[in-house]
Description:
Elements: H1 2-20, E1 22-29, E2 32-33, E3 45-49, E4 52-57, H2 61-64, E5 65-72, E6 77-80, E7 82-87, H3 89-95, E8 99-100, H4 107-120, E9 126-131, H5 145-150, E10 156-160, E11 165-168, H6 170-176, E12 187-192, E13 195-202, H7 205-209, H8 217-233, E14 236-244, H9 246-257, E15 264-270, H10 273-282, E16 285-286, E17 290-298, H11 328-338, E18 344-349, H12 352-365, E19 374-378, E20 394-398, H13 400-406, H14 410-418, H15 425-432, E21 436-437, H16 448-457, H17 477-483, H18 486-491, E22 509-512, H19 521-524, E23 529-534, E24 537-541
Parallel strand pairs: 1-5, 2-6, 7-14, 8-9, 9-10, 14-15, 15-17, 17-18, 18-19, 19-20, 20-21
Antiparallel strand pairs: 1-3, 3-4, 6-22, 10-11, 11-13, 12-13, 16-17, 22-23, 23-24
Amino acid sequence: MKNASIKVLLVLFLISLTSCQNKVDLIVHNATLYTMGETRENVTAFVVNNGKFIDVGGEELLDRYEAKKTLDLQELAVFPGLIDSHCHFLSLGLSLQQVDLVGTKSFEDVLSRVQQFAKQSKASVLLGRGWDQNDWENKKLPTKEKLDQLFPDTPVVLRRIDGHAMLVNQKALDMAGITEDTAVEGGTIIKEKGRLTGVLVDAPMRLISEVLPAPTVEEKIKALKEAEQIAFSNGLTTVSVAGMDREDITLIDSLQKTGQLTIRVYAMVSNTKENVAHYLSTGPIKTEKLNVRSFKVYSDGALGSRGAALKTSYSDLAEHKGEFLTSVDSLEKLAYKLSTTPFQMNTHAIGDAANQAVLNAYRKALTLVDDPRWRIEHAQIIDTSDIALFNRKIIPSVQPTHATSDMYWAEERLGKERLHGAYANQVLLERSGRIALGTDFPVEEVNPFMTFYAAVFRQDANQYPEEGYLPENKLSRTDAMRGMTIWGAYANFEENEKGSIEPGKVADFVILDRDIMRVSDKRVLKTRVVATLVDGNIVYSNRIN
């Protein structure tokens, strides 16, 4: 009788324990977990409720909480949702509606793809993007003659992979009113023997863009949704979009609020008079999914199209130093103006002259500002004497795959001496304390594991070169992952709400099929996303329901 009473009491006690358990939405356990927050031992599990992490620990969390759903990951690797700190989100989606010229091996290959696209397309203008003459045996910039023959009555506009040059046919030139006498400050209309070649670099491209039919709202919505799915399939939960106009920001906001778009967006506003005036009058915008508190400025063009502004001439083109797209005086005036506002100044700077000008403008404007987190986007070629101008107030926002894409021809452009300050990720990290990593997609592939691989091993997908390109600037695996998570969040003023798996932060995380912090270098590029979750909800999965 006594034993029976004890059993009854024990059952009642266990029932009371169960009823006292905290009820939550999700427990993830038995994971190889990288929180990217403060280091804790034996961390294998976390708890999600109402879209946020509420507890992180070991397997004891299973006894502490009662979950609607429990995921046993069988030691799969888990990271915070990945952040691409520099990309062109809408452009990625729109590029799916154009001729894909990425990976073409010759100009003849380009022509073939355009012809094939033209047979299937009903568009009044043939648009394409992705060619790179540096990948061709004949590395000269292409010319328009064959396009004129093939498409005498249809405008053809083909953007170079970096977006800083385009090849157009005569029909497009005529639509834009471009002749041999046309001149535009901040770029080049390339001619041979006084005649137009059809290649426009930087500022003159606007003349073409202004006469092209703008994408419809429906086309933009389709593009944004398709870009989102690509991002989620690659483990990205936040994209920092480098340059957006007001109408596109408003569209994204409306889609997020109606649940048609789930990805988080950090929008850098394009630097136009209208945009600057509007957002300085209204102030930053912050919702659960959208953050608008920065301006994207272009100081120069791209290295591949010789538009990057250098201190001395290009090694492969005498008496040509590239172009400033925004004058030094204008950079400094804008920096002073923004330094008294809550807005970041995020400036594209590729060449050493451009980086020096931006660094000096920042230094002068930020003297009395404690925590501006102003960014230099790309920070690609820096005179070694200017590296000391980087400090904790300035965040280098770099794209590691640019180094492994450019390495085949960068020395031709720059010479050996200027490479000492080129793609200097580790040096910049030491100076600034943090570094934000991105892809610049669709200039490069969306794949963040290529970003990680290029940052850590400084090799391309073929594992070339064996010791890595400029290997002294390799990042550690931990720092590379920080650059794709918590430091990316910090660069967006969002480190208190995302970027690590810690209580109180949004439950954005990604599950991978391998532990990229430990596997051999050969296996990193084979990494696949098992699932991506935003607010604790699955937005992409190839295994988990």
